[in-house]
Amino acid sequence: MGEITEACRTFVVNDPNLTVYEVLRLLRILEGETTIGGITCKMTVSSVMAALGFLYYKGMLRVDRERLTVKLTSKVEWDVKSLVELEIRGAVYALSRAEALRDALKKRDMEIIYEFSQLPINYDSLMRKFAFMQSFQDVDGKEIIFVGDDDFLSVTCSLLGRPKRVVVVDLDERLLEGIRELSDKYGLEIETYKHNFIYPLPDELQGSFDTFCTDSPHCLGGILLFVSRGVSALKRGTETAGYFVFQTVNEPLLMTFETRQKLLKLITNEMNGVIYGMLPASIKYITPRNEDEKLMEVFLEATKRPSLEEYYRHVEETLKPSSKFIEFYPEFSMETSMITRVVFREPKPLIEGEYNKKAEEKYGPIYSWAIIEQHIAKEK
Amino acid sequence: MGEITEACRTFVVNDPNLTVYEVLRLLRILEGETTIGGITCKMTVSSVMAALGFLYYKGMLRVDRERLTVKLTSKVEWDVKSLVELEIRGAVYALSRAEALRDALKKRDMEIIYEFSQLPINYDSLMRKFAFMQSFQDVDGKEIIFVGDDDFLSVTCSLLGRPKRVVVVDLDERLLEGIRELSDKYGLEIETYKHNFIYPLPDELQGSFDTFCTDSPHCLGGILLFVSRGVSALKRGTETAGYFVFQTVNEPLLMTFETRQKLLKLITNEMNGVIYGMLPASIKYITPRNEDEKLMEVFLEATKRPSLEEYYRHVEETLKPSSKFIEFYPEFSMETSMITRVVFREPKPLIEGEYNKKAEEKYGPIYSWAIIEQHIAKEK
């Protein structure tokens, strides 16, 4: 693999997409029969031609002159077949690491995570997010900052990708401790910072990253604040990328048409971000067992009614709007959330100073604030 | 199916997502074991509860109180399994229609399509685009306009979905004739208009559609012009959607960071569009055989050289930049294109009048213009 990449690099030095990941994608395509024009990967025509030449001279390429197609002479041994079969084609390097990841995730303390009104994403969503980032080449060789990381995506990227530097910033020391333990166990060298995003990032983290990732509270204020902190961490004058997640459908608290319009205008016009990808229905959360229990209770209680009409009436009476965050509202749409990738060159954080009353008035309250304040008070 | 939808409607009248398509999605999820909280579809909690009640009273739902899960008692017979397995879960209604579609597509005259420097999308991409539109509920019950349709997506939507009205506007009479033939054969009632997009849409098409689709020339001027025409066709004061396609990676002619930034700013700020989805690497085109031949020639000629170094040298010398559209440049990235979905409420077309020299100066030339003019001259 490295050999092909190196050989291509010798020939074409100017293709920024000539990474191990892209070569893996090319090999994957060549497993099937394809015309040269039919190859689809981010590499340039020159680089693809170089790679084909390399494979041909090594006797690894079968050419059908009649059908105008090329194909590998033998199957590539893929380490982690199931992961590369995700919606966005991705590739990872070692099965043992993927298994380590599954183990690692099992060790997350869900109680701690739920305590902050956070919902962690499920395993498939985590892999999809990693593959999405890989497909844009935002992991390998990159300096990445995680603005909050209850999902342990930092561990995922470090285990399955080849990042240059990984930093996690989070308010919860217990979560950071969990990440540090895994980092030590697997030699990942993840750096952790305890920090409250009400305040700007520490100076040493500003302007020094290629990629940021955040899965903020899903309200306008929360997204703008966390994305702003991520943006403040990006390098200037070069192409960098940021990932955030938000609800895709209307429901009482979150993403109405107007809120989405406001969010996208602020990102486009104020923060100089250009959207490069928005994957609908891509992120699913793990709901706490007590939420599942509540819904099941409503359902089971209703099914004791003698008829479908009575069932309907009971459900309607029982499902009442509530102000609690994780709880299900009757009008809450059950759709999964959306990952968005934004590219920057001259990024400008919308919120630069403290997220105080004034900022809150302008961009909206962050609903898990009260929970965070309680936590801080308890700690003192 | 209709029975479940109707039963739910009786109970919850206010869920706009309570369509046959969403109920199909729900049933698909219930094939597997899931908690109620773990169900992910666009329907609200109320609608999901109603559907579960219906299934339960009909004896079609198995409830595991211990594991808090629900599941169908028997497997649903899916008509077109392979289509629903696409990246975006979609559902279509009859296998026979899917087969009709395959036949229909075979009848496209590729020579006519290539003559306009158009590249049709391949079958998988067509299905992915349809499923993407379905997943956003932009097909069933909707009035849809196709701003150019060399892909026969109009036929796809009519055969596999349940649109209320389908209109195709295109410059090439031969292409429209092909669509009309299929429409007659399958009773699709597709309306066709011959029109040059240099000029605004006919009055009777303005302001009357829920959805527009375009796969314009992939240059800034081309995208802005075709999207503007699409936008002019949308209804006002209600949520409508538009789809367009563009290249996702840097290459000489198309989508640099600056061009993308300009495009997205114009859509967001001038046209009042809000991006709701952007599916990377989703659309692949069918390249003409002579393009494949050219690339294969370069490759085969190069492999006659005695060494890999000589091979590289030959490729480098042979691949020279050219000004022709479909041809492959050495620096052309081979990545597939991107579908984008934009939502509007008060849409405003950027370009309202004729696309003349003045508009061209402002938004850039459209590269297939010369070819279109030649065609018009030849027709006269």
Task: Describe the structure in your own words.
Two copies of one chain form a homodimer. With 380 residues, chain A is α/β, with parallel strands linked by helices. Chain A is 43% helix and 14% strand. Chain A has 15 helices and ten strands. In chain A, the strands form two sheets. Chain A has a seven-stranded mixed sheet with strand order 6-5-4-7-8-10-9. A three-stranded antiparallel sheet of chain A has the order 1-3-2. Chain A is globular and about 70 Å long. At the A-B interface, helix 1, helix 3, helix 11, strand 9 and helix 12 of A face helix 1, helix 3, helix 11, strand 9 and helix 12 of B.
Summarize the SSE layout with pairings.
The structure is a homodimer of 380-residue chains.
Chain A: H1 2-11, H2 20-31, E1 34-35, H3 45-57, E2 61-64, E3 69-72, H4 81-84, H5 95-106, H6 110-115, H7 123-135, E4 143-147, H8 153-160, E5 165-170, H9 173-186, E6 191-194, E7 211-214, H10 220-232, E8 240-246, H11 257-270, E9 274-283, H12 289-302, H13 308-318, E10 337-344, H14 357-363, H15 369-379
Parallel strand pairs in A: 4-5, 4-7, 5-6, 7-8
Antiparallel strand pairs in A: 1-3, 2-3, 8-10, 9-10
Helix pairs in contact in A: 1-3, 5-8, 12-13
